[in-house]
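Why this split exists: single-chain examples teach little about how molecules sit against one another. For that reason, every record in the complexes split bundles all components of an assembly together and asks for one structure covering all of them. Below is a record exactly as it appears in the raw files.
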Amino acid sequence: MAVNLPGLDRLLPVPGVRLGTACAGIKHLDRDDLALLVLDPGTTVSAVFTQSGFRAAPVEVAESRIREGQPRVLLINSGNANAATGEPGVADARELCDHAARRLGDGLGGEQVLPFSTGVIGERLPVDAIRRGIDSTATALSGDGWAAAATAIMTTDTGPKAVSKRIRIEDAEVCITGMAKGSGMLKPDMATLLAFICCDAGICKVALDKLTREVASNSFNRVTIDGDTSTNDAFVIAATGVADHRVIEQAGESYDALRSGLETVACELAQRIVRDGEGATKFVTVRVTGGSTETECLAVAYTIAESPLVKTAIFAGDPNWGRFCMAIGRAGIADLDSGKVSLSLDDVVVARGGLVAEDYVEAAAAEVMARDEYAVNVDLGRGDSKAVVWTSDLSYEYVRINAEYRT
Amino acid sequence: MAVNLPGLDRLLPVPGVRLGTACAGIKHLDRDDLALLVLDPGTTVSAVFTQSGFRAAPVEVAESRIREGQPRVLLINSGNANAATGEPGVADARELCDHAARRLGDGLGGEQVLPFSTGVIGERLPVDAIRRGIDSTATALSGDGWAAAATAIMTTDTGPKAVSKRIRIEDAEVCITGMAKGSGMLKPDMATLLAFICCDAGICKVALDKLTREVASNSFNRVTIDGDTSTNDAFVIAATGVADHRVIEQAGESYDALRSGLETVACELAQRIVRDGEGATKFVTVRVTGGSTETECLAVAYTIAESPLVKTAIFAGDPNWGRFCMAIGRAGIADLDSGKVSLSLDDVVVARGGLVAEDYVEAAAAEVMARDEYAVNVDLGRGDSKAVVWTSDLSYEYVRINAEYRT
């Protein structure tokens, strides 16, 4: 079940990036669950991580290493989140990084390996099995490994998500390829569950840090499946610097070109995560305009996108538009004048001035809500700010997936 | 579907209160959907209302009348919320109040009638039908009408909820009888969807206002089904003053006795609303201790109680306790030390110091989660504050009820 989730196009190798995958048998014995990304020396790496107060061991380790060191390897496993595992979990993550560094040789130290995990919370990693998986991966790296890696990092995703794009910086052609996985416990609060984008542009760390925050804010931080922020969210951008242009040091034409390319890839990945949201049968864009601030527009958009009553109405295709009003009302805008609020579904105006539009015909709204993709447009009538959030519905299948996840 | 929802016990008439019901045919033709409560002159009335920014017409009307006037009549309908109906909705509510006042005679003015509505949002009230319903009710009022009234105010409730209690104030016996209805769109933010408690105690307005806020805060404001706050929430306490004791003017022994009695009735009604939550198969008490403030304890309790992933795990009876950690983590406590958090299910300790307890056996947790009622206990390990919230699970039936609500 997924809403118009595209298959994988041809994925461009990124000069300076080699990938490998293996089946470590963490949760399943019949699929790869381990991916290694090895970056050439000189690569700049930035990342944003979950804002959860209950952060997984790999998040703690990766964040400190990315802040202080020269990361060269991303070590990613699915099937086990290594979260709520305390100090022993941190030790497990460090040991596996050390092992990967030793196996890859090349003078690498364990502190140059960043660990990422996704899956069940509260269980220790099967360290021996993952060590064996690393052994078999480390000898079979290739620039063409993106499709296999995008598949290996999946959990309840129904399909892999990866996108490539070519852009131009100065006279150089630059390749961008990224992958991401969803698909529940998903209201990123900094970044989505796991997303990795590589490019061969050259950019300094300070500029890439800024760019990573900006891209996350307009892509992964604008999607919600169920409002549940993961303990393991991480979004990484790596720029290998292989392409032949001057290193980007600050804002300017090259910075903008790179940001635009990365944002296109990140938005596409973020939307694919929603299309493949757990149990999703609808892909809905919630667009809020006319707010005093972007913050209040986002509050309204998220309240609509996460309301169980709105989500079940979307699942049913039922134009029970009072539920949208309910959600707008409880979004916490203290001085909202409901008499100025308007609501439309795609181009069908449902309400104006806080009550049903005179020309409203329920059949027209029902027709929109029968579509598998549409927009819910809210105007608050109190300013010029706006915000967009992408979401899915709440179906029987969401309940089934999450009631049967472990069993 | 409901979790150990008790049937109606014998309900005590409250001296000074007469009730009547009728079938106005608002949504169904085969059940009563209109209730009138008529209060003797001299009754003190207080209420708290929804904090939604999208408030229903009857909420606007009732709130201003209760602040300024001498209310004598509660006019309640189910089947239509009269919300998102703008000025025409306000005019409808006022007209029906005027009609009820005329029919009841006794020198009543329309401004002494408080309107309350619950049901579908966004549709105009069928004013003529309700007017006829008022006509037939007004001539058949009785002190014994509580059971019929509790049934008439239901929407998706599977059964009526009403409770009586006798208390003693000075030498007088005082009767308390209350009724409430749920059962979705339910995270009261001041009061539950609709709840009315009457007693024959004598208390001045200022003291009853204070008492009403206190009782709401410890009862209806501690339950959540789906986090969706209604446009119509209202909780009313009426005290007729018929009982033979000195009028309560301020804090003291009598005030405490009355508060304790009202709180017992209100908590029982609030818990019954959760037991009858839409699609509920479990009744869960979320108890958070060891917080720096009650506010942060409530934030953690509500995040757990409203997390779709927690609620589906509760539905499944799956001790996937990492989901509780996830919810604790995203509750917005900036400086939470997850290494000090502990978690137990009833008396089974699951985690201590942020990771799985050494003596944890999953089968023991599974046995607790197979019960239809249990407690999730979280200790944050950072202070002495605490909070309790009651909630239900997220089942297929919740989705079915809300995907089929109107159709």
